[in-house]
Each structure stands twice: as structure tokens, then as C-alpha cells.
Specification:
heterotrimer; A mainly alpha (about 325); B alpha/beta (about 280); C mainly alpha (about 350); B: about 280 residues; 5-stranded antiparallel β-sheet; 11 helices; C: about 350 residues; mainly alpha; MetI-like fold; 15 helices
């Protein structure tokens, strides 16, 4: 036999794992390697990491406070625009109708976006996972009732449901998060149920049951872990949709309330000046587009890695 | 007697993340109007050999050979368009499971007549008549009804006979049968094989029979190639199987239960990594 | 025996007609239950809204007597279950109440605005199918090449675009700066209300009236919003087409077709594409349903008087009758399109029979 190379890389790339933990780490490393070879996914990941850094250090990076107004310098164009008064300092991306620095507002706004996305990405898949696995594992009447409810939510026009919900509970970020989660969980429930149905009758579940494992143990320890990977892919792909929905609510004035620097609300504000002062609406739109594209690139790459049907052979 | 097919030093390669993987490594053989069996375990490269002859290895897989001639004319240098007139018309192939190898949303009759019309300029009615005739030749009764059926409506045995009809209808010179009975019920396996054998012999075709079943192949073929790890380790006349020299073949034979010489305990096949390194045997 | 080898399907005791009735009954049941749930949800939304339905009818300055009379007239003194029952009865008879904002019956409003949405969604879907399907097939066939990558980026950009923003920018550039297309609305102001509404879809109505001037005007107004919706549906349809095609192209029967000596083009379009048609119809129906219900923001940006902007404007002005009615109708359309897609599936796929 040849001499085994040592080191972490070799340990991760082994064909003969020595423990369950080792095997899992090796599998993660293999997945990471194939994701790493996908340039577009890496590009997306890079943008998202940058976004997190920008959001974390917004108070240091931003030239001004997000609601600091200089009313005399309203609607200043970005620095590269030729008809801008050269005596004005700052306002790299221009200023809005209240003389606030758009760049600063974008930086602070990234915190709101990340906050909304993170909360929805926690609430909706977990709710869906719960409903889907319970429906799929128990079957019978519970399954029928839960899936009917899921269908009803699916049949509801998503944005209208979110709108109505926010209108009923009052506008604001938390309610926007709840409203988006309320419209986002049904697909997760369907995925989780489909996975559960295929797992439910497998031999190892029978074996676990024969060993005396109860309902909760089987679902949490043996079914949930197997649903995770397909849910993670779906969540990453849905992130862009969540961002767009949040921005849409903000645009309609039902998300974050002024003076908070939410990107959708910023577009809505810039809409009034679109003909003469294009930058006010354009900058936040570009930000939304970039971030949701980044999520889509990453999610698409992850699907290639984690979904063997779609993956490269 | 001239050979239908001559293969010399055939390699099939697939690039992977850890370098190039050789699925078939320097296989050589020739085929006349005979029945040649290729036996090996899964992953031994036997199916890849069959597909390489038809040049149906998908990219990024590569096929290389010193010589791969059909009726003395090279196959590897032909264009894709020229290959299309080889496939079906000169060489055709039956695959393992009719459940997957028949198009699920197309009527059986249409799939067969399509194979005929690809190589013969005939009217639809003529193609249909020819198809019905062919269905009868594979021992299907009530051909008019079967013609209108969808693949999921027929049994496995009938599905495989339909496959045979479809592959024989353009009257090819060589037939590759890739595990044609592995997915079938034991009760219909022999029936399907007999039909295939009868038609192949009647039409004077060459047959390459790929299987993992050593007994089946030796009872059915004239000559047997034994493949291991992408190489041909031994080639034998089918009736000389008991004289096999190579330890792998011997191991395979010893691990089969025999009614005429029962043993208490069947021997387990021991693999020697040296076998994979040795040169291919030429037949 | 050849006969015995065919599957034993069709040998049950019940006649085909009975089986059809059972199936139809089940479908109707499923629709009814979903619709009931939908009605329940709109009812709940209507009840929890912080809007006093009585006050919004009689007005702030009404006397207590007037208020009480209206309160009883609306049935608000009855138990909540009875109120829900009244609501269902009203909806089934097509009575969605009067819209406070427009002063018309909600049903009449919906009949008026729905064709505008349909016109937009239909053209969007047509664009999405015409470009998305070939793009998806091409991406699957050329998998892993630069063509596949471009198709992927095109689709992902479609998914990532905030439609209300790109609509604004599009209006700014194509209408405001270049003047190539019409502005917001379905027609220029001086062209409105000239063509008698037949279908409510201006492109069709003006073509029927042979008024090509108005037809051209309508086209110049619809082109941008329809393209945006079309782009979104293109993204979805092309990705789904690609993944369906990949699944088929790796199937064994594709190898069979190649072994027969078929050309690659025939293998792709006749065999592989033939197998995804049914799935594709389902996807297109779903995407159409999505455009019918999901074009709220597009309609608002383009001042498009469709159902989406009707519901939203009503919601923002607390006109609950209109919101509930509009939502129920959109939900019903969505459910029916789903059922339609499922029926098509059963009808076209030989395996589903």
C-alpha cells in the first residue's frame, strides 16, 4: 500500500471515513469543492459576504447618518453627473428630496433588508417543515386537512394576502415579515411532505420504529435532517423573492415606515422625481437587483450541487 | 470468411475531477456471423464497449481505438451524419429494461415503424404493414391491438419483444444485446432469448450478447469474452468454458452452484489487483 | 398468451361512466373545499381589518339611530357564524356588495377591470412561452456550454428584477426620454372611450372595430408592461423547460432513438420534447395564473386599470367589499386554472389514464 498523505485536506478527501462525523465533514467538503468550481455561485456568495460586511459596519462606512437632512442640498446629482455643482462635497450617489445622502441610506438600508430576509428565511421554512413532515408522516385525515390548508394559502394571491395582512395589522417591518412568511410557507410544506412520503416507508425508519423510537424522535432525528438539504436550496432560491416582496411592500408604503431607509420605500419616494432626478429611484433599485441576483446565483449553484437530478454528472 | 466487425485496442475514457477514468482499456476482438458473448461484473466496461461501437458515448467521454472497422470500413472517422446511417441500419442495440428503453408517450407501433421509415423511403401504410409483420415475427398475437398500445400497457416480456422487433426491422448486420433479459421475469427470459436467437440466425446476423450471467452466455453463444476492470482477461469457445485458464474466470465458475457437483460451501471470488494491470487478451 | 400479458386495467366492475362521475365529484369537492377556505380567509381579513364597515357607509356625522339601523341591516348583530353564512350566500349569488370607493357593485367593477389584467397577462405569457421554451430546450441540449450559461444568467436576471423599479426606469427611458412607447395607462387620454368595449381587451376590440390607429396606440402602451411580465414568465418557463428536458435527455429511450439512427434534432424535438409537453402545459398554466394574480406592482407602476391595482387601491382606501370580492375572484381563477392544468394532464398523458 502506498503512504497516505496527511493533513486536513487529505482527511477531508478520504474514501474511507473513520467516523460518522468524519464522513459528514467529507461530504460537506466535496459539496463545497463543487460549489467552489461554479464561478457564478462564488460571485453571488462574494456579493452577499460584502453585503453582510457593509451592513455590519454601516455606521463606520456611511458618510452621514441615514436621516441627516441638508435641505439646501436637496436632489443633488451623483458626483459623476456633469451638471452637478462642483462646490458640493460628498453625496457620492447624490441626495434625495430631503437632502439626505443616498449612499448612507443604502448602507443602512442593507441592514433592514438582511433583517427581513433572515427572519422570513427562519420562519417560513420551519413552519413549512413542521406542517409538511407531520402531514406526510401521520397521513390520513391530518394529512388531508393540512394539505387542504396549504392549498388554500397557495390559491391566495400572494402579494394581495401580504397586503391585506399588513393592512389589517398595521404597516411596519415586523408585520411585513409576518405577512411574507404567511405567504411563503406553503411550498416548503409541500416539499417537506414529498420528502417525508419517500422516507416514511424506508427500511431504516421501520428499523428505528422497531427499536421503540416514538413519533417525535423519528420526525426530529430521522426525517427532518433528510429534508434539510432540499429546503436549504429552496430557501436560497426564494431569498430573492423575499427581498422583492419586502421591497414591494415598502414601495406601496406598507413595509418599513419613514424615515427608515428601506430600499423599496426609497424607490417609491424617488418615483415622484423620476423624470428630472433619476438617481433617487435608480440607486436603491440597483441595490435590490444586485442583492437578489446574488442570492439567485448562489441558490442556482447550490441546486446544482445538492440536487443530483440537476447536478453535473 | 470476412469479419463484420474488427476492434483493436479500444479505449473509453471519462475525465473526472480526480483525473481520467478509463472505463474500457485496450479491448480487441472481431465478430463474424456468430454469437459473441461478453461477460463481466458491473463496472467491467462491457456495456461501454457496446455503446462505443455505436459511438454513443456521451461527451465528455472519449472513444479511441487503433482500429474499429465495420465491413472493413473505419467507424471512428465517420461524421455524425454517416454514423446515423450505421445506427439502426447496420448495427442496432437492445437495452436492458423495456420499461425505460421505450418512449412512454408514443404508441408502440409508431415507434417500430419509425425505425423502419428512418432507413427506408416508404409510405406510412407500407411501414405499418411491415411493422405488423415484424410484430408477428417476435411471436406477438393480436398485432393490430398491440400496435395501438402504449409501452406502460404491455408486460416486460412483450416490451422486450417489441424492442427486438424495433431493432430488427431495418435488417441490421450486427445486433448488440445489452443484458436483454436481466430485467425480465425468469419465466419469460428463455422465451425472449429464443425469439432473438431464431431471428438472428435466420437473418445471418452477428450478435454481441452482453451479460453478467456466465452460464446463460455459454449456453447461448459461440464464443465468450470475459472482461474485468475494463480489460478482456480471457477469451474462450463457449463449449470450452470448463477449460478456462484465467483465475478470474475460474473464480466465477467456482462461485456458481452446480447440481451435478454439489459442494457444501460455494467459494467466494478472490480478486487480484494484478488482473487489472495486465494487457488485454486479443481474440 | 398475448392477451393475458396486457395489464389488467379496464377490467374493474364499475363502468367508465361511473368512474368518471366519481372522479368529477372528487374534483368538484376539492375545488369547493379550497374555495370555502378562501372565503373563510377573506371573511377573516374583512373582520379583522381596523375599519368600521358601518361607519364607512353612513359616514362620520351620522346619528346613532342611523348607525344602529345600518348595523342591523348588515347583519352585524348576528353571531359570527351566521355572518359567515350570509357572506357565503352573497358570494354564491354573485353579490359582493357595493364598492365604497367607486360606488358601483363590486361585481360590475371586477367585470370591467379583469379584461385589462387578462390582456396583459396573456401577452406576457405568450412572450414567455415563445422565447422561454426554445431557450430552455437549447440550454438543456447545450448543457454546460456558454449557451447554457447565458440562458441561465438571462433567467436569473429575470428572477432578480424588481419589476416596479425596472418599470419605472423603462418608462423614464423609453417613454420620457426617447418617446418610443406610450406612457402609463392603456391608451393615450384622447383615445380613451372611443372604441365600444366588446371583450374589454382593447387590442381585440380595436381590431374588431378595424380602428388601427387605436390598435397601434394600445400596442405602444402594452408593449413595455407585457414585456416585463413576459420576461419574468420567460425566466420561470425556460428554467423549468431546461430541467424537464435534462431529465428526459438522460433517459434510456433517448438512447433507443439514437440507436435507431435518428437525427439529433428529431431525437430532441420528437422524442424528448414530446415527453415534456404535458408537464410544460402545467407550468405554463401556473405561470399564467401567477401573472393574473401577481401583476399588482406592474399594474400600479403603469397605471394599468386591472384587478391587481383595483384590489390594492381599494385596500389602501379601506374599501373592504372591493378587496374581498377581488381576492375571491382572483383565487377562484387560480384554482380553476390549476384544475384545468390537471385535466389537461389527464387528457394528454397516456400514462395518466
Amino acid at each position: 500500500m502506498s503512504i497516505q498523505p496527511t493533513g486536513l485536506r487529505a482527511w477531508l478527501l478520504t474514501d474511507t471515513p473513520t467516523s460518522r462525523h468524519h464522513a459528514r465533514m467529507a461530504a460537506y467538503y466535496q459539496a463545497w469543492l463543487s460549489l467552489k468550481s461554479n464561478h457564478m455561485a462564488m460571485f453571488g456568495l462574494g456579493i452577499l459576504l460584502l453585503l453582510v460586511i457593509l451592513a455590519a459596519f454601516a455606521p463606520i462606512l456611511a458618510p452621514a447618518a441615514p436621516d441627516f437632512q441638508i435641505l439646501d442640498l436637496r436632489l443633488t446629482p451623483p458626483v459623476w453627473v456633469s451638471d452637478r455643482d462642483p462646490n458640493i462635497d460628498g453625496f457620492i450617489l447624490g441626495s434625495d428630496s430631503l437632502g439626505r445622502d443616498i449612499l448612507s441610506r443604502l448602507l443602512y438600508g442593507s441592514r433592514i433588508t438582511l433583517y427581513i430576509v433572515a427572519l422570513v428565511a427562519l420562519i417560513a421554512p420551519i413552519a413549512g417543515l413542521f406542517v409538511g413532515t407531520v402531514a406526510g408522516y401521520t397521513g390520513g385525515w391530518i394529512d388531508i386537512i393540512l394539505m387542504r390548508i396549504t392549498d388554500i394559502f397557495l390559491a391566495f394571491p400572494r402579494l394581495v394576502l401580504a397586503l391585506a395582512f399588513v393592512a389589517a395589522l398595521g404597516a411596519g417591518i415586523e408585520n411585513a415579515v409576518l405577512a411574507i412568511s404567511l405567504t411563503a410557507w406553503p411550498p416548503y410544506a409541500r416539499i417537506a411532505r414529498a420528502e417525508t412520503l419517500t422516507i416514511r416507508n424506508s427500511d431504516y425508519i421501520h428499523a428505528v420504529r422497531l427499536q421503540g423510537a416514538g413519533f417525535i424522535r423519528i420526525i426530529t432525528k430521522h426525517i427532518w435532517p433528510l429534508c434539510i438539504s432540499s429546503l436549504v436550496v429552496r430557501v436560497t432560491l426564494d431569498m430573492a423573492g423575499i427581498i422583492l416582496a419586502a421591497a414591494g411592500l415598502g414601495f406601496l408604503g406598507l413595509g418599513a415606515q419613514p424615515p427608515m431607509a428601506e430600499w423599496g420605500a426609497m424607490i417609491s419616494e424617488g418615483r415622484r422625481f423620476i423624470l428630472d432626478h433619476w438617481w433617487v429611484a435608480t440607486m436603491p433599485g440597483l441595490a435590490i437587483f444586485t442583492v437578489s441576483l446574488a442570492f439567485n446565483l448562489l441558490g442556482d449553484g447550490m441546486r446544482d450541487v445538492l440536487d443530483p437530478k440537476e447536478g453535473k454528472s | 470468411m470476412t469479419n463484420l466487425l474488427d476492434v483493436e485496442n479500444l479505449w473509453v475514457r471519462f475525465p473526472t475531477r480526480n483525473g481520467i477514468f478509463d472505463a474500457v482499456r485496450g479491448v480487441s476482438f472481431s465478430l463474424g456471423k456468430e454469437r459473441l458473448g461478453i461477460v463481466g461484473e458491473s463496472g467491467s466496461g462491457k456495456s461501454m464497449t457496446g455503446r462505443a461501437i455505436l459511438r454513443l458515448i456521451r461527451k465528455p467521454g472519449m472513444v479511441e481505438a487503433d482500429r474499429m472497422d465495420l465491413d472493413g470500413v473505419p467507424l471512428l472517422t465517420r461524421t455524425e451524419k454517416e454514423m446515423r446511417s450505421v445506427r439502426g441500419q447496420k448495427i442496432s442495440m437492445i437495452m436492458q429494461d423495456p420499461k425505460f428503453s421505450l418512449n412512454p408517450v408514443m404508441r408502440v407501433g409508431k415507434q417500430i415503424s419509425e425505425a423502419y421509415r428512418l432507413h427506408n423511403r416508404v409510405s406510412k401504410a407500407e411501414a405499418k404493414a411491415k411493422t405488423l409483420e415484424m410484430l408477428e415475427a417476435v411471436a406477438i398475437r393480436d398485432v393490430e391491438r398491440v400496435y395501438e398500445m402504449y409501452p406502460h400497457e404491455v408486460s416486460g416480456g412483450m416490451g422486450q419483444r417489441i424492442m427486438i422487433a424495433m431493432m430488427l426491422i431495418p435488417n441490421p448486420e450486427i445486433m448488440i444485446a445489452d443484458e436483454p433479459t436481466s430485467a425480465l421475469d425468469v419465466s419469460v427470459q428463455m422465451q425472449v432469448l429464443e425469439i432473438m436467437d431464431k431471428l438472428v440466425v435466420e437473418r445471418g446476423m452477428g450478435l454481441i450478447f452482453i451479460s453478467h450471467d456466465l452460464n446463460l452466455v455459454s449456453s447461448f453463444c459461440d464464443r465468450v469474452l470475459i472482461m474485468y476492470s475494463g480489460r478482456v482477461v480471457e477469451t474462450l469457445k463457449a463449449d470450452q468454458l470448463h477449460n478456462a485458464q484465467h483465475p478470474y474466470t475460474r473464480g466465477l465458475l467456482d462461485s456458481l452452484p452446480r447440481l451435478d457437483a454439489p459442494v457444501d460451501r460455494l467459494s467466494v471470488l478472490q480478486r487480484d489487483p494484478e488482473w487489472a494491470k495486465a494487457e488485454s487478451v486479443t481474440s | 398468451m398475448a392477451l393475458a400479458e396486457t395489464s389488467p386495467k379496464g377490467r374493474r366492475k364499475s363502468s367508465p361512466f361511473t368512474r368518471f362521475l366519481i372522479k368529477a365529484g372528487k374534483t368538484v369537492m376539492a375545488i369547493s373545499v379550497t374555495m370555502l377556505g378562501l372565503l373563510f380567509m377573506t371573511f377573516v381579513i374583512g373582520r379583522v381589518m381596523p375599519v368600521d364597515p358601518v361607519l364607512s357607509i353612513v359616514g362620520e356625522r351620522a346619528s346613532q339611530e342611523m348607525y344602529d339601523a345600518e348595523f342591523i341591516k348588515l347583519g352585524l348583530d348576528k353571531p359570527i357564524v351566521v355572518q359567515f353564512f350570509y357572506y357565503i350566500r352573497d358570494v354564491v349569488t354573485g353579490n359582493f356588495g357595493i364598492s365604497l370607493r367607486t360606488g358601483f357593485p363590486v361585481w360590475n367593477d371586477i367585470v370591467r377591470v379583469f379584461p385589462a389584467t387578462m390582456e396583459l397577462a396573456t401577452i406576457g405569457t405568450i412572450l414567455g412561452v415563445l422565447i422561454g421554451v426554445p431557450l430552455g430546450v437549447l440550454a438543456a441540449v447545450k448543457r454546460g456550454t456558454w449557451i447554457d450559461q447565458i440562458a441561465r444568467v438571462v433567467a436569473l436576471i429575470g428572477y432578480s428584477m424588481p419589476v416596479f423599479w425596472i418599470g419605472l426606469i423603462g418608462l423614464l427611458v423609453l417613454y420620457g426620454m426617447l418617446g418610443w412607447i406610450g406612457g402609463p395607462g392603456r391608451l393615450d387620454v384622447f383615445n380613451e372611450d372611443i372604441i365600444p368595449p366588446v371583450t374589454g381587451m382593447i387590442l381585440i376590440d380595436s381590431a374588431l372595430a378595424r380602428d388601427w390607429f387605436i390598435f397601434k396606440d394600445a400596442l405602444s402602451h402594452i408593449i413595455l408592461p407585457a414585456s416585463l411580465l413576459g420576461y419574468y414568465s420567460l425566466a420561470y418557463i425556460s428554467r423549468m423547460t431546461r430541467s424537464f428536458m435534462l431529465e428526459q435527455l438522460s433517459s434510456e429511450y433517448i438512447t433507443t432513438a439514437r440507436v435507431k439512427g435518428m437525427s439529433e434534432r428529431a431525437v430532441i424535438w420528437k422524442h424528448a420534447f414530446g415527453n415534456i409537453k404535458v408537464q410544460l402545459i402545467t407550468v405554463i398554466a401556473l405561470s399564467y395564473a401567477g401573472l393574473l394574480e401577481g401583476s399588482v406592482l406592474t399594474e400600479i407602476i403603469f397605471s394599468w386599470p386591472g384587478i391587481g391595482s383595483y384590489i390594492t387601491t381599494s385596500l389602501l382606501s379601506a374599501d373592504m367589499n372591493a378587496v374581498m370580492g377581488g381576492t375571491v375572484v382572483v383565487g377562484l381563477v387560480f384554482v380553476l386554472l390549476n384544475v384545468f392544468a390537471e385535466l389537461l394532464y389527464k387528457f394528454f398523458d397516456p400514462r395518466a389514464k
